[in-house]
Amino acid sequence: MGGSSMFSILILVLLFAVMYFLMIRPQKKREKETNAMRAGVQVGDEIVTIGGICAKVVKTKEESIVVQVGADKVKFEMMRWSVSKIVKEGSGHTAKDIDDYDEVEESAANEAKKSKPKRMKKAAVVEDAEEAVAEKAGEKAEETVE
Questions:
Q1: Pairing of strands 46-49, 83-88
Q2: Which of 69, 75, 98, 109 has its CA 20 to 30 A from that of 42?
Q3: Listed residue (66, 78, 109) closest to 56, CA to CA
Q4: What CA–CA distance (Å, rounded) separates 123 from 20?
Q5: How far is 55 from 37, CA to CA, in rounded Å?
Q6: pLDDT in tens, 77-86
Q7: Rounded to whole angstroms, how far apart are CA atoms 98 and 42?
Q8: pTM value?
């Protein structure tokens, strides 16, 4: 009787060991890698949150980060644990560098708006359109004669 109870205890211990190596250990390893990734988020990194928001990190704090989102460059603060993955590693710029870059980018966009070609006068456009219509009519007339 003592041998069968020892055998059942041995099977339970063996089952627990297998469960540990197949389930618990890999999960702890993934959790450790995820925490290291979240702790390593730097300014300039492009991230995806657990909610699916794609953003660019502009400032880091102890437990939170400030991100920039969308074409309007809206900035908001969020907790580090909400980072799902880093899509693109940044160059490690500081928040001031990012703000300076945004200002340069905006001024370049404003310059591009200012340097658009001037519009043609309406009379010239109307004359060009009339010439095009006349050419088309002449081509159709030639086709019908042939």
A1: antiparallel
A2: 109
A3: 66
A4: 84
A5: 16
A6: 999 999 999 9
A7: 12
A8: 0.52
